[in-house]
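Lecture notes, unit on protein representations.

Consider one protein chain, 138 amino acids long.
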Amino acid sequence: MPAGRMKASKEHRVPLSAAALAIIETLRKEQGGAHLFPGGKRDKPLSNMAMLALLDRMGRSDLTAHGLRSTFRDWAAECTNYPNEVVEMALAHTISSKVEAAYRRGDLFDKRKSLMSDWATFCDSSGGANQKIISIRA
């Protein structure tokens, strides 16, 4: 993500899992346009309000798009042993301590790559007693 699109005004590299890359490749072949997620208007990307509109159409006022980030955070804390720094960097959260921020200059990309691969595996799991799968197709 370019720095101009980030709250911290700093570039954020996003490691994509093999599953995410496969989806992207399929979408590129099917759509062939300039945008991975095209919007309703010609040559325009999907709106930043699209997920909220989808949840509204689904009648899911109990969910938010930000809740998806929170779900990831809870999963990482409760179900993995990844260090807090890796998870927080995956969410592009800033470091509150100015001293720590001055010394931590890397982006933990390889560790975040492993984290995102494990997240993809979790999301793609067949489910269990504690999981409820909701179709987002309208």
